[in-house]
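Input record (one chain):
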Amino acid sequence: MHEMQHINRDHRKARSVGFSLVELLVVIAVVAILANLLSTALNQAKGKANRITCLSNLRHLQVAWSLYVDEHDDQLPLNRTAASADDRGPGRRNSTNSWVVGNPKVDVTVADVVKGSLFPYVRSAGVYRCPADRSTVIGLNAVRRTRSYSMSTYMNGDEAGMDARVKTRSSEIISPPPDKVFVFIEEHEASLWLGSFVVAPKDRFSLASGSWSSTPSDRHNQGCNLTFADGHVEYWKWHSPKKFSLSSPNVSGQEVRDLRRLQESLPKP
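The corresponding structure, as predicted from the sequence alone:
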């Protein structure tokens, strides 16, 4: 009898220090759920940090734009496409006297960023690229692009003197007021990169459809950052994800709402 009681105590002791298969599976499931929650939280935190850094980058560029205007008698920095056809690759290259030079789709160094008229006010090539931008140079998958941001073509762009919407001086930005007119924007990696960021005015299209000429980025939780002529920076959440397509450039539905919103931030003639 004593021996049987000893065996029962040993059996209960063995059960108390071990795990059943069900218990082990429950523990594994709980650990997996916690790991997934932690991973999601870390990704969200990283995404938020990238967005804040991107906002800071654009704020620096906008300050540089404003300083340039102050030091050049109200003249906006040039935002022109290179005149020589030999100086154009995929997309278009910015001219050597513009706020930035070259084209990020093909530039393999920051040399063209440094040549731009705004660089003396920024002094850091890293400011020109969003930390969440993973795009690479054409044909060189290991080389990250040097720039994520573009300037509105209506800020001293190619059609200055031909289109009354294109302003060459800060004092010309009246309607809408400066706090409603965008200057810099994050451009989508698949966009055409036309030298400047081109948004066709609303009056060129029917109310039922529209078209992106340049495509804004959506890398920040389906949104992007923009700066405005009064100096402030905003984050815009888009109604639809952004995806440029040469075969189907027209947009409709929710996409039109995004296009219209940006069109409302263009200077009027």
